[in-house]
Amino acid sequence: MLKKILSISGKPGLFKLVSQAKGMLIVESLLNGKRMPAYAHDKVTSLADISIYTEGEDVPLREVFESIKQKEQGKTVQIQSSSDGAAYKEYLNTVLPDYDKERVYLSDIKRIINWYNLLVEKGLDDFKQDDENEE
To answer: Signal peptide span per the entry (predicted)?
Structure first.
C-alpha cells in the first residue's frame, strides 16, 4: 500500500499514484482529491522507500507507522505542540526508542506524525500489508 503513496518535494501532503505516462506520473492529492502531473524533474519519493535512522539498522517507515497505530489503537495522534518540539520528540521516543536523535530532526518527526494522521483519516492504514505481493 505504501508503495503507491508518494511524497513530492515542495508540495504539501501526500499523493496517491493514479497512472504513469512518459516522463511523468499522474497523482491524486490525499488532501483535496485533485489530480495533477508529477514530472521527472520533481523529487518524488514512495513512502515504502523511506526509513528512519536508529542507533542500529534503519527502520522502514511502515514499521514506525504500525507502532504508532498500535499505540494509538488505530486513531490519529493528538499532540499538544510546544515551542521546542519536546512533545514530538518524546512521542517518537515512545514508539521508536532507539531513533538517532542527531540525524532525525524535529521537522522529520512532525512530518511522520502528519503523514500518519492523514493516512488514518483517509482509511489507508493497513501498514502491515506486504507491498511486494501487491504487484
So the answer is: none
Strands (E), the chain: 5-8, 15-21, 24-29, 35-39, 44-46, 51-52, 59-60
With a pLDDT cut of 90, the percent of the chain lying above it is: 79
Query: Count of residues for the chain?
Result: 135
For residue 49, how many other CB atoms are within 10 A of its CB?
13
Kindly list the distances between the CA atom of residue 4 and the CA atoms of 18, 79, 84, in Å, as whole numbers in the listed order: 8, 28, 34
In 3-state terms, what secondary structure has residue 37? strand
Grid cell listed for 66: 504500525
Residue 110 CB neighbours (<10 A) = 15
Q: Which cell numbers hold the place of 2?
A: 505504501
